[in-house]
């Protein structure tokens, strides 16, 4: 076939986003940050003043989400991330978004999808699967530094609690919990620079291409 899929999963703030964008750029592949599809659905519900507790309402919104032009800057707010992880436990919401993500994954010449369930559910046949992780402390520190770097005010303890709570929700849910696919390459970036993580990923991809 004429498309090659790279599946990248891992917990919040592990560096998947940066890594995925760089890989997509390097190989000239299309990139989809699937977290944005959950965030866009959640934001649309919040903006419309709709409840986050009604699965049928949330599914309808999920089916209206456009995958192109999703912007992390607009969707980065903490409340949106929390709301996203709440509607992400709903099977009907996941079904709707996974269908759209699978269609995206077939674009030529190749695609990079990153999220929580790409290697396990969305693209289980992907020839390259990476599971990118780092300790909760390191991930909280990176998020803290990122906010401070932009001149913002950040509370490390609050961010740390947040990272742990999100992990629990993402790993503990019944439908498509966050976990590495059996054939995923594990990439623990706790003590790795972004550059080192990229080089490690590149060797894995080059060997499979
Ligand atoms: O990656 P990001 O933090 O933007 O994702 C927001 C939330 O969307 C996650 O905490 C997770 O609950 C959900 N999500 C998911 N499956 C994906 C991507 C994100 O359940 N493939």
From TrEMBL:
GO biological processes: pyrimidine nucleotide metabolic process
InterPro entries, sorted: Cytidylate_kin (IPR003136), Cytidylate_kinase_dom (IPR011994), P-loop_NTPase (IPR027417)
Positions contributing to ATP binding: 10-18
EC number: 2.7.4.25
Enzymatic reactions: dCMP + ATP = dCDP + ADP; CMP + ATP = CDP + ADP
HAMAP family: Cytidyl_kinase_type1
Protein name: Cytidylate kinase
């Amino acid at each position: 076939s004429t498309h090659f899929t790279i599946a990248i999963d891992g917990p919040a703030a592990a560096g998947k986003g940066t890594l995925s964008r760089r890989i997509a750029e390097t190989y000239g592949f299309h990139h989809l940050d699937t977290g944005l599809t959950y965030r866009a659905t959640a934001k649309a519900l919040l903006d419309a003043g709709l409840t986050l507790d009604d699965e049928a309402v949330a599914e309808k919104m999920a089916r209206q989400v456009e995958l192109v032009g999703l912007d992390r800057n607009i969707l980065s707010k903490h409340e949106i991330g929390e709301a996203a992880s709440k509607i992400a436990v709903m099977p009907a919401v996941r079904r709707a978004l996974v269908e759209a993500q699978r269609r995206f994954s077939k674009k030529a010449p190749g695609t990079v999808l990153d999220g929580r369930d790409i290697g396990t559910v969305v693209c289980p046949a992907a020839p390259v699967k990476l599971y990118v992780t780092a300790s909760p402390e390191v991930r909280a520190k990176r998020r803290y530094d990122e906010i401070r770097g932009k001149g913002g005010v950040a509370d490390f303890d609050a961010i740390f609690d947040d990272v742990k709570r999100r992990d629990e929700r993402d790993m503990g849910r019944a439908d498509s919990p966050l976990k590495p696919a059996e054939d995923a390459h594990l990439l623990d970036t706790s003590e790795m620079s972004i550059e080192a993580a990229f080089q490690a990923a590149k060797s894995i991809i080059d060997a499979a291409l």
